C-alpha cells in the first residue's frame, strides 16, 4: 500500500449554520434533525474516513440528501471542512458541474484553453489536445459557435471530454454517466476505464448502481452524513439494493 495515497480523509466533517441558511436550504433539511448539534449546526457529513489508492475507483452511493455531493465538493476544494483531515494529491479534474468553467461567449476551442488555464496546464499542451477533445465531444459545426448556443447535452459532452483529456491524478465524477445518449455513455465508460488503467484515483458519486458496479473497485454507502458500509463495490451495492428493497 502506498505511503501517500491520492486521497486520504480522516474524521472529516462539514456543517452548515441553519440560522444563516436560505429558507429553501432549511426546508430541504426538514426531517433530518438527528444531524443537528447542540449549536443548531447541520452536519452534512461527519466522521468520514477513507483512503483511495492509485488505481482504485470508489463509488459513493446513498439516498438523496445523504451527503454524497458535499463529500465530492470537499474533495474538489469547493467546500472547506469544519473538522478532520483531508489530503488530495496530484492534478485534480472534476465533473461535479459539467462545463462549469466555460465562458458562454467563447467557442469550444477557446473554452478548452480557458479550462486548461484553470487546471494549470500550459496552453501549448492544451492546444495539442483540442482536436481529440472535439472529436470525442462530437459537437460538429457548433465547435465554432459560442457555448451559449449549445444544448445542455453538448455542454456536458464537451465538459467531459475536456476533464478526461488531461490525465488527472484524481478524477471526481457526479452522475456524469447519466449524460448523453447510450453511445456517448458507453464511450464515457471506456474513457474512464482508460484512466483507471493508468493508475488514477477516481471517486464517482452516482445513483446509477449498474455503472458503479461495472467499473468501480470499491464503494461506500453514506446515510445521514456518515459512512454506513464500505468494501468491494459489488458487495456494498448488493447490500444496498437489498436494504432498499426491504424499505419498499
Description:
The chain has 248 residues and is α/β, with parallel strands linked by helices. Helices cover 36% and strands 24% of the residues. It is built from 9 helices and 9 strands. Strand 8 and strand 9 form a beta hairpin. Helix 5 packs across helix 6. The longest helix has 16 residues. It is globular, with a radius of gyration of 19 Å. It starts with 6 loop residues before the first strand and ends with a helix.
Features:
248 residues; alpha/beta; three-stranded antiparallel β-sheet; six-stranded mixed β-sheet
Quaternary state reads single chain
Query: What percent of residues adopt helix (DSSP H or I)?
Result: 25-40%
Count of DSSP-assigned helices: 9
Radius of gyration: 19 Å
Write the element-wise H/E pattern from the N-terminal end onward.
EHEEHEEHHHHEHEHEEH
End-to-end CA span: 40 Å
* Strands, count: 9
Q: Provide the structure class.
A: alpha/beta
Overall outline: globular
Biggest pleated sheet: 6 strands, mixed
Strand residue content: 15-25%
Summarize the structure.
The chain is of the alpha/beta class and 248 residues long. Helices cover 36% and strands 24% of the residues.
Question: Any chance you could write out the topology, listing elements then pairs?
Answer:
Blueprint: E1 7-17, H1 23-28, E2 41-52, E3 57-61, H2 68-76, E4 83-88, E5 92-94, H3 108-118, H4 123-127, H5 130-137, H6 152-163, E6 170-174, H7 182-197, E7 201-205, H8 209-215, E8 218-223, E9 226-232, H9 233-247
